[in-house]
Amino acid sequence: MAKQQDDRTTLDLFAEEKRPGRPKTNPLSRELQLKINKRNQLKRDKANGLRRVELKVDVALLDRLNELAEANNVSRADLIQMLLRQHVEAQTMQQQQD
């Protein structure tokens, strides 16, 4: 049987042929790589004194936060942190005055 270069239905004939593309440099699966990277990111954040907070907001508020963050050239997370800090400081000042 003759081997056609463009025939990919008989895979056993092409088992030894190298395929073009990016070489695999990490022996771990992509899913496992992502888990490890996330774990390392959480360790870095913890070392920097950061803690994770999950927040659910409606779409209109999210759109407004995105607009404000873009207008101020900051990330949405930084904007939310700044707004929370301002609000907490204002509440603290108000409680001290009472």
From TrEMBL:
Annotated InterPro entries: CopG
Coiled-coil residue windows: none
Region (Disordered): 1-28
CDD domains membership: RHH_CopG_NikR-like
Biased composition (Basic and acidic residues): 1-20
Pfam families: RHH_1
Limits of the Ribbon-helix-helix protein CopG domain: 51-89
Organism: Pseudaeromonas sharmana
Protein name: LexA regulated protein
